Amino acid sequence: MSVTVRIPGPLRRITNGTDKAAVTAETLGGVIAELEAQFPGIQERILDENGALRYFVNLYLNNEDVRFLEGLGTPVKAGDEVSIVPAVAGG
Amino acid sequence: MVNVAALRCKECSREYPIGAFNVCDFCFGPLEVVYDMDAIADIASRERIMSGPNSLWRYADFLPAEYNPLVDINAGFTPLIRSRALAERLGLEELWIKNDSVNPSYSFKDRVVAVAAAKALEFGFETLACASTGNLACAVAAHAARAGMKAYVFIPSDLEAGKVLGAAIYNPTMVAVNGSYDDVNRLCSELADQYQWAFVNINVRPFYADGSKTLGYEVAEQLGWRAPAHVVAPSASGAMFTKIYQGLKEFEYTGIIDKVETRMHCAQARGCSPIATAYEEGRFVIRPVKPATIAKSLGIGNPADGYYALKTIEASDGSAVIAEEHEVAEGIKLLAQTEGIFTEGAGGVAIAGLKRLVERGEIQPDEPTVVYITGNGLKTTEIVSDVVNPILIESTVSAFEQSVGVKA
Q: Residues B162-209: pLDDT tens digits?
């Protein structure tokens, strides 16, 4: 069993329309590296040139913002779900 | 529209034709509306504005949607009031209060939704939706009712009763989500990919956000066609704060007013102050927080426009200020008891922030200052319920004189 990544609409151009990807990795950073291997070009949408999460991108591990966890170093395990969500205006 | 050129990514500057999307396909950055400001400058004038309706549509030349009477509930053009007692209390000579709590659904959110809903109709949507801390839900539900559109509003499950009722009365489908506004937001972002709805603060966001520019235009007009020296405004996501300044700068660019030297001050509450904390620590990276503030309309721990709010502070030589949680209710009471204006938590934060800015010397006594009051106190009565303490008496004159202690 692997980690499921939910792909948001604006990134599906890179994933050929697919809205979910299955990857195997130890950490969230590994999840993104694995995504990049499957869908070249996706990493630069999520991480900046220094390899940090872009400030207008939110990454969630099982509904928790990873900035409240250990960021890209957060361990992941089989069955986890990762969401990539662009920042939303106020309400 | 003659005045709208395109959508442009705020990060990589790639341009897109006008449409119902908010994120750059290439870098994933947020999109915003680009205007042909020179074309606007050619047609816009003070006279043209003054001959327009007494609503935000008097600034239609500067807005990214066509006026549509089917969805108009007369948002905007709210009073700008010259403060006397509060100004005196704070030691200010020229303090103005922008009372946006008297919009049709009782908050500034009617401005952004007026523009978003008109645009949604242009795009052919039949359903309006939003993620909301309460005020936006009220505005979306009210505009949808007027336009005969379906409405879906998503709110955190712990909102104040006045906000829940204030939205429910228009009969939207209301979904209360277990979690904070940031959780509601994430859910709605994922739903927006799957449903053909106009989520006003997601896929229609570029148009929505620009409704707040009218808070800048209006104040400039009401001050007699000039910009104030200081603006104090509460901030949650930072979008409104950023757009007030953009509105003032657009009036400057198009020659409607002279040079803008307004310093922009952003007020947040201690329990949710990611923008103000970043400002105090001198960084442009926002660290998200878990909101824990009594001013729930400001309870956005992961502010999407926080970075741009910090840039606005920098560009305008402004600042940010934090109101302590106990100062929120004090600010609400101070405004009510000096000016007769009853505001909600966000307004309490703005007044407490203003007070601190004066104490710090950021605002000098002779500098014209505008404080924005963006929501109505009747929606958040829980915060100040301790003021209710009537003197109970029998219906006789002597009972009155005895209990109240005054004689004719």
A: 999 999 999 999 999 999 888 898 899 889 989 999 999 999 999 999
Contact B237 A90 (CB under 8 A): yes
Which among B200, B219, B220, B222 has a CA at the least distance from the CA of B210?
Answer: B200
Reading the block at residue A38, the tokens are: 């499957």
Task: Give the Cα separation of B368 and B378 in Å (integer).
Answer: 29
Chain B contact set for A64 (CB, 8 A): none
Per the domain annotation, does B129 fall within a domain?
no
Q: Which residues of B fall within a CB distance of 8 Å from A44?
A: 27
User: Which one-letter amino acid corresponds to residue B88?
Assistant: E
Query: Per DSSP, which regions of B226-315 are E strands?
Result: 230-234, 263-269
A11 neighbourhood in chain B, CB within 8 Å: 28
What is the torsion angle, in degrees rounded to the nearest 10, for the CA atoms of residue B321, residue B325, residue B329 and residue B330? -60
- Mark yes or no for CB contact B193/A19 under 8 Å: yes
ipTM of the complex: 0.85
Q: B98: closest CA among B391, B368, B382?
A: B368
**Residue B9's beta-bridge partner residues?**
B31
Nearest-by-Cβ selection for B131 from A60, A68, A91 = A91
Residue A91 maps to a domain? no
For the stretch B126-172, pLDDT in tens is 999 999 999 999 999 999 999 999 999 999 999 989 999 999 999 99
Contacts of B388 (CB under 8 A, 6+ apart): none
DSSP letter assigned to residue B272: B
**Phi and psi of B402, rounded to 5°?**
-70, -50
Domain that holds residue B293: 80-106+211-387
- Structure pTM? 0.95
Which tokens sit at B197?
């709805």
The answer, yes or no, to whether residue A89 has pLDDT greater than 90, is no
Of B259, B256, B263, the C-alpha closest to B229 is B263
Q: Would you state the pLDDT for residue A56?
A: 85
If one counts every other C-beta atom within 10 angstroms of the C-beta of residue B3, the result is: 17
Mutate to test the interface with A, among B23, B159, B180 (most CBs of A within 10 A): B23
> pLDDT at position B2, please?
65
When the pLDDT of each residue in chain B is averaged and rounded to a whole number, the result is: 96
The CATH code of the domain that includes A50 is: 3.10.20.30
**3 state SS of B308:** helix
pLDDT tens-digit map of A3-44: 999 998 888 888 998 999 999 999 999 999 999 999 999 999
A57 in Cβ contact with A28 (< 8 Å)? no
Q: Is residue B398 part of a domain?
A: no
